[in-house]
Amino acid sequence: MLPLLLASSSAYRRELLARLRLPFTWASPDIDEQRLDGEPAAELVRRLARQKAEALAGSHPAHLIIGSDQVAVLGEQVLGKPHTFARACEQLLECSGQQVSFLTGLALLNSATGACQVDCVPFTVTLRELSREQVERYVAAEQPLDCAGSFKAEGLGVSLFQSTHGCDATSLIGLPLIRLVDMLSREGVVTP
Description:
By secondary structure, the chain is of the alpha/beta class. It has one domain (4-186): Maf protein (Alpha-Beta Complex). Helix content is 31%, strand content 27%. Strands 1, 2, 3, 4, 5, 6 and 7 form a 7-stranded mixed β-sheet that branches. The longest helix is centred in the first third of the chain and has 15 residues, at 41-55. The chain is elongated, with a radius of gyration of 17 Å. It starts with a strand and ends in a 6-residue tail after the last helix. 40% of the residues are buried.
């Protein structure tokens, strides 16, 4: 088996990948993550996932490189990471009572052959009707400032949900493991 490399600095993605009990290393890719004019959100995450994997191919020539990227979408609006307390509260209040789609791009690049599998895995969350007080209390407690959509589904953020819908709940956290296992299998990797 070729060594496995996660092209991400995300602790969330590392924790998810560790669930598969496969040895891996990780490195942070340096790419421009700006959305292209008119680029659909699903194409954006596919492109960025692939670019993250490709960015590390030169320094890791015989690896299976995993790239992933995620955006939250409310209607036609792409929600980025809030970075500030005020913006996180604003995002959650915009999403109150609404359906938010999380699109997670996933790429698996075999840097020895150049073969690259790419997909986009959707997951939808319907948020409860939230008051400003609830939102501020949540953001203060969990500090989801580095999370698309301003919540951590793997933590207290689940208390904000009315319902969820999707084929892979791990995609909501940023690395769709069910789809990744399929991709790894095509590369001959057997998971426990």
